[in-house]
Amino acid sequence: MRNKLKILLIIIILSVTGFAACNKTSNSLQNDAIARVGNNKLTIEMLLNEIPDHVLKQDTVSAILEFRDSWVEDKTVEREAYQNKIHLSPDYKKRVERIQNQLLIDIYKEFLLTEIGDDLSVSMEEAQNYYQANKDRFVLDEKYVRFRHLTTRTRVEADNARRDLLSGREWDDVVKNYSIEPDKQLHNSEKFFPMSMAVADIQILNRYLQAIGRTEISPIANRGGYFHFVQLMEEKAAGTHPDLDWLIEQIREWLFLEKSRRFINTHIRNLYLQAEANNEIEISNVASIEEKLNQYLNQQK
Questions:
Q1: Residue 26 to residue 68: CA distance in whole angstroms
Q2: Pairwise CA distance, residues 183 & 138, whole Å
Q3: In a domain, 301, yes or no
Q4: Does residue 45 sit in the same domain as residue 21?
């Protein structure tokens, strides 16, 4: 609740100060609108619904300004496109029809899966049996690591967090007290990652992970305006079998997708056979297609 109030306060301030790009206040904005392009208004509700909470938490002001400026740019171009009657052009109508048709097919497939419901669910036992029958397929192709990654706003906070861990304080408490993303970093600390993907966006931390020993904490790195360190917790060597609990949910998802694919393909095949039996489908053979193609090409000369 406190975060939402903070966000709303910042938005109110932004709505008063107006667009940074033009450096002047717009008196035409009303109610909760923070931007306007023609008759289109960007409201607080629209903004909060579009920007993910974790993005707002990371840098509220930057997230709002970035979304606002992007919205203004898109609406400006959209308005110009309408004024040039792009929406009436044959190319536009052709693309819209193609998108609509594909969307219709995709939603129908989703409808089918919703209708069949629990019949496609995958039990823990099914997933375990699949793992045992295909265990040789699940071999780590590189070293995997489980590690803790903490990100703080200041160097002092990073130093204090590092000292707390070294003195034996619980990881959960340290994350909640110092991390800028406590939920995410707490969740990720329970997972294994391939070494090549472990904090790959901060290469210095990746290199620390490759050099430090188990439970050792890396030096503090300053990246992206924040302060980071990592602590290596567990390693799994390349060529070994991963633990089942790493894979169980992923296996269940694979099996569900496979069941879904087979179900949809069978359903579509039945639709085809039914339409064919009702003489609703006609298909030209290769010779007929070649003949019609040649006729068309000759007409184009």
A1: 14
A2: 29
A3: no
A4: yes
C-alpha 186/C-alpha 170 separation (Å) is 12
- Among the listed ranges 59-73, 95-109, 175-189, 282-296, which one has the minimum average pLDDT value? 59-73
Residue 220 domain boundaries:
140-236
Judgement on whether residues 60 and 49 belong to the same structural domain of the protein: yes
Give the Cα separation of 7 and 16 in Å (integer).
14
Beta bridge partners of 221: 228
Query: Would you state the structure tokens that stand for residue 36, as one six-digit string?
Result: 């306007």
In tens, the pLDDT along 152-174 reads 999 999 999 999 999 999 999 99
187 and 198 fall within a common domain? yes
For Cα atoms 201, 56, 12, give the angle at the middle one, nearest 5 degrees: 145
Phi, psi of 198, rounded to the nearest 5 degrees: -70, 115
Using CB atoms within 10 A of its CB, is residue 141 exposed (0-12), middle (13-18) or buried (19+)? exposed
Same domain assignment for residues 19 and 144? no
Nearest to 256 by CA among 124, 105, 111: 124
What percent of the chain is helix, strand and coil (3-state, nearest 5)?
60, 15, 25
Question: Which residue shows structure tokens 């998802």?
Answer: 253
Provide the number of structural domains found in the chain. 3
What pLDDT shows up at residue 20? Answer: 41
Q: Indicate whether 297 belongs to any domain.
A: no
**Token code pair at residue 253:** 């998802």
Distance from C-alpha of 37 to C-alpha of 78, rounded to nearest angstrom: 10
- Interhelix angle 171-178/155-166, rounded to 10 degrees, is 170
- 144 shares a domain with 232: yes
Which tokens belong to 141? Answer: 């192709």
3: region left, alpha or beta (phi > 0 left; psi from -120 to 50 alpha): alpha
Q: Let me know whether 161 and 215 are in one domain.
A: yes
Helix (H) or strand (E) holding 96: helix 90-116
- Tell me, yes or no, whether 103 lies in a domain: yes
Whether 106 and 161 share a structural domain: no
Q: What is the identity of the amino acid at 31?
A: N
Check whether residue 146 and residue 130 sit in a common domain.
no
